[in-house]
Every structure is written in structure tokens, then in C-alpha cells.
């Protein structure tokens, strides 16, 4: 597990409480654009970053593990001299958040886990997807991915934004995407969920076909200080489809636990 220096952007009050935003497979830090104004206006120092293998972060050869992705977060906090942060992660980002909550709990004030899962099988599905991407590129999986990310109604109402997200996925380096599929294929976060001590907000999209509400329920049942919110209409990228609801939930959680 060797950390890489991931690409990041910091916005908001330099002295505000830090909030780290960690994104999904196939995304880059632009996926959090709907959260930035709400968090910075409320006085937070917002740190967004690209997962390794994604966006403008380095692409070391895979496979990656969640320990690798978690080590990148700890190294980023060290680089920014942040002792503890509020961590908000969606999907793969939420998995990274659970890893940090389990193995480096002292680095977290709170955890917000959006549209994620502690166990997302079958493993063969991730191996198959990685093989497709290595053979044909990320463009081969981008259209199917946006169909999981957004409800049909949202896609119909926002064709340009849907295309932009599809382009974001298609521009993700194939090796980075495939190597992160391996991290999901091999992850095992369930047994240690009770070790997460951070106050945890779990948010699920009611219409999410990728990490459905039942997965969020399992996390909320196992994490001692967790609370579950199911919101809709929203598919996998609920932070984009329902930014107002998600922002209010995040801000409420941070304020309750500062
Ligand atoms: O399959 C998808 O695109 C949904 C997803 C699973 C993990 C992740 O980060 O995104």
C-alpha cells in the first residue's frame, strides 16, 4: 500500500472545518459541483480530489485495493495538514470513507456515506467489467453507467448534463477504472462496520439500481452511530439529482456533530 499524491482542489474558508469529498468510480472531482457553494457558504473548507486512476490523479498500474485508496486520503490529509476532517463519499468514495472510518478513525469528525455499499458483488461482475474496459476503453461502459447514475426522468430533462457525465466516465483512464473495479471486487468492509466510531449519515437514492437502499440499510444497521435517509426521486448520483436535499442533509449532519 503506497500512497500517491492525488489531484485536489480546495475551496472556501481557509480556517473553516475541513470537509473532504470523495467520488465514485468513473468520476472526477467535478461530480461534487452541486455541493461546493452550499458548503463554502456555510463556512467550510471544501477539499475535492480525484481518486487514483481518475481525473488528473496519477494512474499507477493496478489492481488497486481499498487500502490503497484509503492511504491516498490519509496522505492528502497529511499534505494539507488536516488532522481530522468531515468525510463525504459517494459509492466508491463511500467505500473509501468506510475504510478510513475502520482503519484510521482518529482522522474523521463525521462520515457521510452516499449511495454506497460495504459489499457489492458478485466479484466476477467487477472482473468482467475491468476486462471490458481494458480491452475496449471506458467509453464501452459509459452509456450503461449513466443509466445507473440518473433516473430516466432526470436524463430526459437534462440531456446535456447527462452527456457531460457520460464524457466524464469515457475520459477516465482505462487502467485507473479497471484497477478500481478490482478494489470493489476484493473489498470486505462488512465485518468491521461496528468499528466505525464517527457519527455517520447514510444516504440512499430510492431509485438507485447500483447500490440500492437495502445496502444502505445494512450499513446503517451495523454502524453504531448511524442514521439512514432514503431520498427520491434519485438514482446513483443522488447528490446531482437531488442537490438541495443532499446539501441540507450533509449540512445538518455536520452542524449536529461539530
Ligand atoms: O456501476 C456503477 O457505475 C456504480 C458504481 C459502483 C461503485 C461506484 O463507485 O459506482
From TrEMBL:
Keywords: Hydrolase. Its EC number is 3.1.1.24. Coiled coil: none annotated. It is an enzyme of class 3 (hydrolase). It comes from the Bacteria. One of its GO terms (molecular function) is 3-oxoadipate enol-lactonase activity. Residues 17-242 form the AB hydrolase-1 domain. The keyword Calcium does not apply. InterPro entries: AB_hydrolase (IPR050471), AB_hydrolase_1 (IPR000073), AB_hydrolase_fold (IPR029058), Fimbrial_membr_usher_CS (IPR018030), PcaD/CatD (IPR026968). PANTHER family: AB HYDROLASE-1 DOMAIN-CONTAINING PROTEIN, HYDROLASE, ALPHA/BETA FOLD FAMILY PROTEIN. This is 3-oxoadipate enol-lactonase. The lineage of its organism: Bacteria, Bacillati, Actinomycetota, Actinomycetes, Mycobacteriales. The gene is pcaD.
Amino acid at each position: 500500500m503506497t500512497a500517491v499524491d492525488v489531484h485536489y482542489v480546495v475551496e472556501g474558508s481557509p480556517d473553516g472545518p475541513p470537509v473532504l469529498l470523495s467520488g465514485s468510480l468513473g468520476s472526477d472531482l467535478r461530480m461534487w459541483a452541486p455541493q461546493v457553494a452550499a458548503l463554502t457558504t456555510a463556512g467550510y473548507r471544501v477539499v475535492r480530489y480525484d481518486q487514483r486512476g481518475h481525473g488528473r490523479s496519477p494512474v499507477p498500474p493496478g489492481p488497486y485495493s481499498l487500502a490503497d485508496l484509503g492511504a491516498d486520503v490519509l496522505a492528502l490529509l497529511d499534505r494539507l495538514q488536516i488532522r481530522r476532517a468531515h468525510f463525504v463519499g459517494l459509492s466508491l468514495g463511500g467505500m473509501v470513507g468506510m475504510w478510513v472510518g475502520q482503519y484510521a478513525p482518529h482522522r474523521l469528525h463525521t462520515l457521510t456515506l452516499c449511495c454506497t455499499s460495504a459489499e457489492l458483488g458478485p466479484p466476477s461482475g467487477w472482473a468482467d467489467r475491468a476486462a471490458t474496459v481494458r480491452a475496449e476503453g471506458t467509453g464501452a461502459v459509459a452509456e450503461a453507467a449513466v443509466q445507473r447514475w440518473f433516473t430516466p426522468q432526470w436524463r430526459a430533462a437534462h440531456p446535456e448534463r447527462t452527456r457531460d457525465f457520460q464524457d466524464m466516465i469515457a475520459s477516465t483512464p482505462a487502467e485507473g477504472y479497471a484497477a478500481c473495479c478490482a478494489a470493489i471486487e476484493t473489498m470486505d468492509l462488512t465485518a468491521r462496520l461496528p468499528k466505525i466510531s464517527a457519527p455517520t449519515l447514510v444516504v440512499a437514492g430510492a431509485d438507485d439500481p447500483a447500490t440500492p437502499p437495502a445496502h444502505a440499510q445494512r450499513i446503517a444497521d451495523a454502524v453504531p452511530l448511524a442514521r439512514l435517509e432514503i431520498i427520491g426521486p434519485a438514482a446513483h448520483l443522488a447528490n446531482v439529482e437531488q442537490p438541495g436535499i443532499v446539501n441540507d442533509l450533509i449540512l445538518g449532519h455536520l452542524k449536529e456533530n461539530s
